[in-house]
Write a structure and sequence with these properties.
Number of domains of chain A: 1
Bound molecules: adenosine-5'-diphosphate, magnesium ion
Strand order of the largest sheet of chain A: 6-9-10-3-11-12
Radius of gyration of chain B: 21 Å
Radius of gyration of chain A: 18 Å
CATH architecture of chain A: 3-Layer(aba) Sandwich
Number of strands of chain B: 19
Number of strands of chain A: 12
Distance between the termini of chain A: 33 Å
Number of helices of chain B: 10
Helix content of chain B: 10-25%
Order of helices and strands of chain A: EEEHEEHEEHHHEHEHEHEEHH
Strand content of chain B: 35-45%
Strand content of chain A: 25-35%
Shape of chain B: globular
Number of domains of chain B: 2
Oligomer: heterodimer
CATH class of chain A: Alpha Beta
Shape of chain A: globular
Distance between the termini of chain B: 55 Å
Order of helices and strands of chain B: HHHHEEEHHHEEEEEEEEEEEEEEEEHHH
Structural class of chain B: alpha/beta
Structural class of chain A: alpha/beta
Largest sheet of chain A: 6 strands, mixed
């Protein structure tokens, strides 16, 4: 599904990713944990195609294609989805319009006809129901006036509508109360299948208790310093990151 | 000081050539007025950038042209015209071709009782006293050289009177079609929209053309609203790129009258628009909204003035500029609140988006307040498209052109979304979006 090798990226001459390796196989859920400022969001942005960051070395293979060679919108049409840590508010463009444009962009990319309006509405209604969003919210501007939790639920709703093969969810669990966390976890779980994969960036074990990951990684100083299973998340919750980062430095 | 100037000489000669064929030539009062106005024009010629109101709008290229008037309209096919008008718009239609009323292209059957609608030229031929009197009146001196030129050369226009208590049942589409077939051609139209007490109407002035020859289109719309009258007026400027477009709205508003004016400037090489209202009755409301979108080398200048001359007046004004290429936009919004205009409530905002590094917009809200018990707010922003928003949209699969088109559409839609009826709104949105790369695909935006 996704194979990252020796990925290096910088912004304004400042190195953020320093030779990162990661492989995600079809059907797997990976969790990436790590201290603030370690480069988790940068990794997510680089994978999604944000041009602000400059990739200086390494390669990323996505389903047999060179991911780094594609524009952000092509990557999305190829099946990649980024759930933003800080979803952007776009007043004046409705969630509904954005979704329809996004669905049709994918269809155009695959050489298919535009989606039938009725079919589309039903599809959106179904998915909005999963995350507890009503149609009033869907018709509002993208994230316009949404609370932090509503924005995160909207990200999950978009993911459900767009049905990506690889979802990278950047701290989608931050700032959620317990009920919202469960809703988000259900959304993620409903997408799990043998041919879809998920990368969860998170600070907390909480989400991982609801969405059992196959692998847990620690990202620090722009690299994956340690990988393991759920027990790694337990250890991190108990002891923090310093043990691991010190260990790696030694 | 009168400086002999070649362009002034040209227009004096042009007037002499046309004089006997101009509408109302047989009526002394009208002819006298034309002469007086021509003299005023000849005193100054076109304005120069030294004048504060023309600071950013350089007319030297226009001054080099030798525009000529025409005595009659060329023939225009109905199909060619229809292609330019809003589709599916249910409206009465008054069509001017190169400044001359064209009845065969117009649709004026079934006007309600209490509505008088005439071609200005015809009314003058018939010696219509109201129209003669209006065109001979001297109380409107304040529109500068183009205004004087218009009053000297005016060929035709719309005279619309709606009697007290009457509402025009459907919008009236007032089409100004420029054939652009004759080199350096000019047209001067003048309209009067007069609404009696509590009368109501929607008038859409559309300016369009498809010719490639340089031409000048110079129009004045006079509006007189009696007590409680309500006018929705739209100005849809889609001139050809060869057009120098000058237009003015001069409104007088009595007690409790409402004027809602929407404009969109999309076409033309250079446009200068003056939109003014004088609120002389208590409780009158003026709302001016405008979108202007200069691209390539277009220059678009909007000057507005709302003159609060009475108590409890309300003004709302919002202009949005979108400049791309080497487009240049100018907005000057003046709100004058006179000493006796207590309890005035006024809001003015100007927002501008620069879509390319070489685009430019100069926007200036100008509040002049002499009354002490008023509410007046104004704000002005200039910015660029939000790159975070563009990336967000692209991460959902929408390409760069699409993301930009959507953001531009949403910026303009804040104002265009208020256009009614729906067919008109769709037309103006599409007209704006089709100018963007791949924008037409997003014309179903709202
Ligand atoms: N747009 C940016 N401009 C400059 N520095 C940035 C930018 N985005 C991130 N960084 C820097 O990159 C580093 C990693 O940030 P980030 O990837 O957001 O970390 P994390 O998501 O792990 O908290 C930080 O030092 C941050 O300051
Ligand atoms: Mg982050």
């Amino acid at each position: 599904m996704l194979k990252i090798e020796n990925l290096k990226a910088e912004i304004e001459g400042k190195a953020i990713l320093n030779g990162l390796d990661l492989e995600v196989k079809p059907g797997e859920v990976h969790a990436i944990m790590g201290p603030n400022g370690s480069g988790k969001s940068t990794l997510a942005s680089v994978l999604a195609g944000r041009e602000l960051f400059e990739v200086t070395d390494g390669s990323v293979d996505f389903q047999g294609k060179d991911l780094l060679d594609m524009d952000a919108d092509e990557r999305a049409c190829e099946g990649l989805f980024l759930g933003f840590q800080y979803p952007v508010e776009i007043p004046g463009v409705s969630n509904l319009y954005l979704l329809r444009a996004a669905v049709n962009a994918r269809r155009k990319y695959r050489g298919e006809d535009e989606i039938d309006a009725m079919e589309f509405m039903q599809h959106v209604k179904d998915k909005a129901g999963v995350v507890g969003m009503d149609m009033d919210m869907i018709k509002r501007g993208v994230n316009e006036g949404f609370s932090g939790g509503e924005k995160k639920r909207n990200e999950i709703m978009q993911m459900l509508v767009l049905e990506p093969t690889l979802s990278i969810l950047d701290e989608t669990d931050s700032g959620l109360d317990i009920d919202a966390l469960k809703i988000v976890a259900e959304g993620i779980n409903s997408m799990r299948s043998a041919d879809r994969s998920t990368v969860l960036v998170t600070h907390y074990k909480r989400l991982l208790e609801h969405v059992q990951p196959d692998h847990v990684h620690v990202l620090a100083k722009g690299r994956i310093l340690k990988s393991g299973g759920m027990e790694l998340a337990d250890a991190l919750e108990a002891e923090g990151y310093s043990g691991i980062t010190d260990e790696a430095a030694a | 000081m009168t400086q002999p100037s070649p362009h002034i000489d040209h227009y004096l000669a042009e007037f002499a050539r046309l004089e006997r064929s101009l509408a109302g030539a047989a009526q002394d009062s009208v002819a006298r007025e034309r002469h007086a106005r021509l003299k005023n024009f000849a005193k100054t010629g076109f304005p120069a950038t030294q004048q504060e109101a023309w600071k950013y709008t350089d007319l030297r290229a226009l001054e080099k042209r030798r525009f000529e008037g025409s005595e009659e309209a060329p023939t225009v096919g109905e199909k060619a015209l229809d292609a330019l008008l809003p589709a599916n718009l249910d409206a009465h239609r008054f069509v001017l071709v190169d400044g001359h009323f064209e009845s065969s292209l117009s649709r004026l059957e079934s006007l309600p009782d209490g509505v008088t609608l005439r071609s200005v030229a015809q009314a003058l031929e018939d010696g219509d006293e109201t129209v003669t009197e209006w065109l001979s009146s001297r109380d409107d001196e304040a529109t500068g050289a183009f205004g004087e030129m218009n009053r000297a050369f005016v060929s035709d226009g719309l005279f619309l009177q709606i009697d007290a208590g009457t509402t025009l049942d459907r919008p009236l589409l007032l089409v100004h079609y420029s054939s652009g077939r004759n080199h350096e051609f000019m047209q001067h139209c003048r309209h009067l929209l007069r609404l009696g007490d509590n009368a109501g109407a929607t008038v859409i002035e559309q300016y369009c053309g498809d010719g490639e020859e340089d031409h000048l289109s110079n129009t004045i719309t006079d509006v007189q609203l009696s007590s409680g009258a309500r006018l929705h007026r739209y100005r849809l400027q889609e001139e050809s790129r060869a057009c120098y477009h000058v237009s003015a709205l001069l409104a007088e508003q009595a007690r409790d009258s409402v004027l809602i004016n929407h404009s969109a400037d999309l076409g033309g090489r250079l446009s200068r628009v003056d939109t003014r209202s004088h609120l002389h009755g208590n409780g009158a409301t003026a709302e001016f909204y405008g979108v202007y979108a200069p691209d390539k080398r277009q220059h678009m200048d909007n000057h507005t003035e709302i003159d609060h001359d009475c108590e409890h007046g309300v003004s709302r004004e919002a202009f949005r500029g979108l400049a791309s290429g080497r487009g240049r936009g100018v907005f000057n919004g003046r709100i004058l609140i006179r000493r006796d205009a207590q309890k005035t409530d006024s809001e003015l905002s100007s927002d501008a988006l620069l879509l390319s590094p070489r685009a430019e917009i100069d926007a200036k809200p100008e509040l002049e307040i002499y009354a002490d018990d008023v509410k007046a707010a104004h704000g002005s922003t200039v910015g660029q498209l939000d790159e975070d928003a563009i990336f967000y949209l692209r991460s959902r699969g929408i390409d760069d052109d699409g993301a930009r088109a959507m953001l531009v559409a949403s910026f303009a839609d804040e104002l265009l979304g208020q256009w009614a009826p729906e067919a008109l709104q769709q037309h103006v949105r599409r007209a704006l979006l089709t100018r963007l790369p791949d924008g037409a695909r997003y014309a179903d935006f709202a």
